[in-house]
User: What shape does this take?
Amino acid sequence: AIYTFPLSTKAAVYGMTMTIGSRVVRATIEEKSKARAAYEEAKDQGKRASLLEQSRPNVFTMNVTNIAVGDTIEVELRYTEVLVPEQGVYSFVYPTVVGPRYGGGADGGDPNNAYIGSPYTHAGQQPTYTFGYTLRLHSAVPLQAVNSPSHNMTISYPTLGTATISCNDADGGNRDVV
Assistant: This one.
């Protein structure tokens, strides 16, 4: 399986885990060619393996191999991102779809670009997967309010400077999380 997904150009990935049933695989960060070789070797040996590669500054590709029929695979990606305020308001945008806008240029760029040709869930279509996330927000100053115009969320404030935001919006994977 190949899953292409976007992240912010300001994101720094620091960890990934893949869970298949009760088995948990923790990723290690390696040089690109070394990681690719290890993935291909595991694939050839019939082992379950995954490989996360940065394709562009804002696009990542996850390869998962040797998936058994009926397997449920959960992938957890960990990254940090510094938010810069605009007029005193901080915004976090998590893109969930790599579509034509990732091809570059105002018109979507080159139609032969792999990101334009990638299948994606169009607005109004129900995704074929479940979507959810948990965001832990840490601030050096007390938080005044956290809200989302794009998704239904559950928000808790463990301390004045932290918030835990959870979203399990079944059809939420077809639009950016704001």
